[in-house]
Amino acid sequence: MSDVKEVLGKYSTEITKTIEDELSTIAPENLGEASIYLTRAGGKMLRPGLTLIVSEAVGGNRESALKSGAAIELIHTFSLIHDDIMDDDDMRRGMPSVHKVWGDDVAILAGDTLFSKAFEMIINSIDTTPEQNNKTLATVADACVKICEGQALDMGFEERFDVDEDEYMEMIFKKTGALIAAATKAGAIMGGASDDVVDVMYEYGRLIGLAFQIQDDYLDLASDEETLGKPIGSDIGKGKMTIIAIKGIASDDSGRLLEILKDDENSQEDIDEAIEILKECGAIEYARKLALDSVNQAKEILDILPDSSSKQVLLDIADFVLERNT
Fold it and tell me: What are the pLDDT digits (tens) for 281-314?
């Protein structure tokens, strides 16, 4: 099994350089600095890494997919900047968020700049055909619409406690999974894969994207504060509807869990009580199994690819989604 973080780190060097080159001409200076800020702050670079790895796994040249991968990272960064503004979050990747450093107006412009640059980069891809570029543009544009839909759904859930599992799965696919699926599909397109393989690679990305978000829900309750970097059960404290909360509400005949979730003033003792309820009714393990099932499906459909080191990395990344602790 490959060291996924090490592999992604190797790809991130190329991706970061490509992004730096593309954004180096942005003026005025404060807009350029705000635009590149989060890329320099680090991150897993999972999405662009997947684009390059998939392009190699389908028999293509990763140089052809490099600008598409970098573009997808710009889209991801654009979404983080705008999310932080909407949520008024102070920190991102261990640093003050963009809008806290440059203000809301410049942060919005930085996000818009990254969004626009992403499409320009795809158009200027190297050693690709116009058809490949157009298909990738359509794939990324579709993901952008889905991200907005997912964010709107998530906002709509804030005052609801009757969200069902199907609604939640739709939301996390659109908000989180869609861009990961676009990353893997773009890699297949730019790698010259057949339509059948392109479709399978989109499904692979969709499945690990779902698992990624469900694992986040799981870690909020099963990790520890030092590792996670935030208090355990913070989702409960916010009354957030996760797959675990949805399953727990449906299983808790006492109604106590719902009472805690609705309480804006809940204490740490209340949160600990809610966690015990979720453990006892099997909601936490249910989420873990759901994520595991998605990962196993993702690995199974990779049978369509010939054996290679890149295919093995894709298998390892699927496992990594569940093995990560942050």
Answer: 999 999 999 999 999 999 999 999 999 999 999 9
Contact 44/34 with Cβ under 8 angstroms?
no
pTM over 0.85: yes
CATH of the domain at 120: 1.10.600.10
CA-CA-CA-CA torsion sign (267, 268, 269, 270): positive
Q: Indicate the number of domains in the chain.
A: 1
- 236 and 260 Cβ atoms separated by less than 8 Å: yes
Domain housing 154: 4-323
Contact present, 31 and 64 (Cβ < 8 Å): no
Beta pairing partners, 92: 95
* Beta partners for residue 96, in sequence order: 91
Which token pair is 159? Answer: 């005052």
Q: How far apart (Å, rounded) are the C-alpha atoms in residues 281 and 252?
A: 7
Nearest of 117, 158, 145 to residue 261 by alpha carbon = 158
Q: Name beta bridge partners: 91.
A: 96
Report residue 230's pLDDT band, with 50, 70 and 90 as the boundaries: low
**Cα–Cα distance measured from residue 317 to residue 191, given in angstroms and rounded to the nearest whole number:** 19
Q: What is the rounded CA–CA span in Å between residue 103 and residue 207?
A: 36
Single-letter amino acid, residue 22: E
